[in-house]
Fold each of these.
Amino acid sequence: MRPKKWWIDGGLLVGFGVWTLLLALRTPLLGMDLAVRDWSESHWPPGAHGTARVINYVGQGGQVLLPLAALMAAFFAWRRRSVRPLLPVAAALILTYLTIGPLKVLTRRAAADDRTIPHPEWLFHDPGGLSYPSGHVVNSIIWYGVYAILLGSLVTGFWRGLVRFGAPIVVLCTTTYLTWHWVSDGVGAIMVGLFLDRLMRRIPWDHIPLGNRPWTAPAQLEPDPD
């Protein structure tokens, strides 16, 4: 079953727009960002910072998530004699390229650990700022969603949910704790990531017309239920 509730998709878009507007208007949300950052920096016991950095690699798009997805897709393509496992990987790569980067450039927000400019928490304030929304979180939501698509019926129920949502939660917590991102960067990224993930899940990967050619057979790519 593919997602059927379009109002959820609309709600995610509206929610992201409202959230961004609240940050741009410099509401008390910025005070929350500063408080979380300062608390994080004051709670780095020996070893905690390094451990969080290692754990955060589960959300590294270009270094970890994309190569792993490409390897998984190539394996399933060979095993199932179909090019279809490569399609979700290509689609995810295009979606992330067209959304994460442009949003970061448009909002121009400094990273939470940037002490070189006044008020790094402000949006539209740092010409070189690329913090909002969190690319780590968006990438983890999309790419772990791709893993769930590739695994198809091999992983169901609780374990399927763990694949799709476990890593994004970990990434959200670690990027905030490491002060690489403001906590509001992660909240905005959740809305963007879930919207893109739902778009990916709506695509009938096993039924996209590819013609009656070799290596175009269905590849057991089953979308998640709503």
Amino acid sequence: MRIFLRAVEETIQQATPEAPTQARVAAVSFIQRFGSSLNQHLHFHSVAADGLFGPADDEEESEFYQAGELTSELLDRLTETLRRKILRYLVNHGLIDEIDAQEMLTWQHHGGFSVDASVCIPEWDRLGLEALIRYCARHPFAESRLTYIESDRVVYRLKSGNTDGQTHLILSPIEFIQRLAQLIPPPRVHRNVYYGAIAPNCRLRPYVIKQAGPAALTELTLKQAKEKMGLAQTQQLPTDISLQPEKQTAERKRKASRAWAMLLARIYEVLPLICNNCKQPMKIVAFVTHPQTIKTILNAIGEDPQLPSLAKPRAPPEEMDCTYPDTEPEYDYNQVPATW
């Protein structure tokens, strides 16, 4: 990942000759440990700005330098740099032989390495940027594709079929938990890495962050509009000029997090905020925090005031009773039942 980010920064620096030497690119990488079929697949997604951030004249602000066109020559040079440096890294760490690396350098079409720069999200498309970040930071599996068969089979529908035509994974509960446990990241290892101008120790980081967001975007649009009209930055724009971008995207209403009561109702099929006696919704009257008062109330309603002791941890069962009848019913896995 460091090799990739450094090579990308060097390429953007070559495409931005007007930027100062201390200007840095801003990038964030998301480390993923999973594939689309609940399998282990270590890779990363990186999002980088198509330009450089450098110190402004007053040294209390940062200035963004837009990169020029990323020509095919620059991309070919970037691809060749990545191939050479990554193969050298693999040889130095004993992962491949040097003879194999030399042979791979002679392969045509960059030997399996490719870089594409045809997709770019404009600065005004905040929803497009959010969709990209959501994809990069997605979860290991989608709950909407998870179903059950007779409560002893977990069915996970694959997003796209495998090469052998498989479209669903049919697992036992223990096998499903085992697959999920393998995808848990190791302790004290970051899953998001910030690079360049937004790195934790970079002195440009607070100024770059201050320029982010819709408010900074409006100021940038105002500045560009004045430059196009030949006005000084201290002058006001005419009142009939609209600063709205050419393509406007409707704001998407965010879904609030589900209330804990609804989550409990979904799991245990009982509404915890409904009174068992009168069947009416309960309301909070007061919070009791004094320990002696709590014990008195618990004794009055017939509950044990002592905290229950924690059970000792145990390992999962090594074997499951997988006794099934001689003839299993035929399931049509293309017609997967809906989630409970």
Amino acid sequence: MLNSIPTGLDALAQNAHAGQWSLDDDIDWDQDIRVPRWLPRRLAVSLVSQFLYGEHATLEVCERLRKTLGGDVSKACLGFQIADERRHAQAYTRYLERLGDVARPDPAMAAAVAAMDEWDGPVEGYLAAYHILLEGEALRSIEGIADVLPCGLFRAIGRRVAVDEARHVAFGRLLLIERLPRLALDERRQIYRWVRHLWRDGAGRTLDEFRVPGVMTRGLRQRWLEEGWQRHRRSLMDVGLLAPEEVAKMEAA
């Protein structure tokens, strides 16, 4: 049972319970689809499709984590997240039906998800990869794609999804803060190297292969990549994966 005065994970679980929303009642599906003339419809389809595949990938890892992690409240939070991810996938599927097509997974994204699935280190690595890196990036991407795809219906979906994703990131942060002190320094270094590789390889290939015409030059893409890693690196230090001096050593190596 959750505490009467909830804090930390207890509060997050209660917020998740209160924050469940209805696909039919909380989204106005009568809104028209709006795709800018300069944006090819196939590219809009591909952009939204990658969100769909990201939801599926996160759903699968949450189901694995729920079987692995101990603690009733952690399992409750993951249960709510599983419900969230399913609802997000349904929302993107319905939107894509309105667009008239579904694209295949971007090769770079598919390779990154496959690399995540091959992780055989501490379970905290999954939390860092999915709840810090992937979910954190999803939050930023929702805002960025909404600028590229100024569609009221997509933005309405994005607002709902963003609230859930922020809660998922908070869950990962809280759990990592609790669990990381139990790991040896070598294990935490292993997680850091792996997450850094995921970002630089996966995000770098995505930028090279998945471009929106006229939006990013090569220099801007490289700056986006580096600024993104700096942001994720700060998040990893904030949850206690490594101290700043350890990060500096690893970045200099």
Amino acid sequence: MFAPRQWFRRGALAIVTAVAIATISIAPAHAQSDVHILVAFDESAGQNTEGIALDRTGDVFVSVSPLGDLWKIPAGSTTPQPFGHVDGVVPGRDFGMLGLAVDVFGNVYAAVQSADPAVDGVWRFDRRTGDASRLPGTSAIAIPNGLAFDTRGNLFVTDSAAGAIWRIPWGGSAQVWLQDPALSGDGSLGLGVPLGANGIAYRNGVLTVTNTERRTILAIDRSRSIDVVTTLAGNPDGVAMDVFGNAYVAINLQDTIARVAPDGSIGVIASGDPLDFPSSVAFGTAGGQRRTLFGVNFSLSEQFGLPPGFGPAVFTVDVGAPGVPVP
């Protein structure tokens, strides 16, 4: 997650976003795949899409960050429908609704940052009604960002400002699971606060985490041991895993989806138009879509001095390997 140029306040701290544009130089692992637009959103209406997750039936859920909205694209459809909403997100002040995850029952979870302490935290949306309730203890998370379930029903949440990962046990309250300098930002993006741990994904007992400012991909096992898989030339955001242990990473300002192999080698899956500040990725779940990577354009490039791009959208790209099944 990168935020638009905006102010938000946590206690007495005011933050202004001013991102330095980094270059990226990554050797292609193979011929780049074609990117297909599934659904385009209306940026003029504030519909900047930041997070994405799919349930077991192939329904696609998308967070519309500045509006605090959760939208659903039913399996096989290209028509998004309003599904849920969190009051108290103020466009231009808050990061809003960010990362998403879906539990084994089909309920949807969203990380929400707001200067309003009654809003900030992780929210659960009922799979039938879309009714929202905040998970206990999550109001203490500074900037809740990425979400990932393990196979035991634990929900892990990256805290981008605190350089931490929180764990929410099934039916329990959020607690800090790991806080480490490797998860912290270094201030290199000039945000006023460090922007560290961001995207997160689970596979075979290991959490893969991106650190946006340090440009690292981290592997964290159950013992909380941290290994640096690789360091990128650009700043990574969301991440998803295939069954072979490859990580697929959204790199915002470079309009790139990269693949990071377990040995740390890096290749380009797709880059350029129609990618437009891609922020989150997730694998397809329905029949015939396990090798399809879904993603969203956050569409903030022009706010950082780049030409306007395609605009906010949900896109797909065939990556040739099946994703890790939804826990």
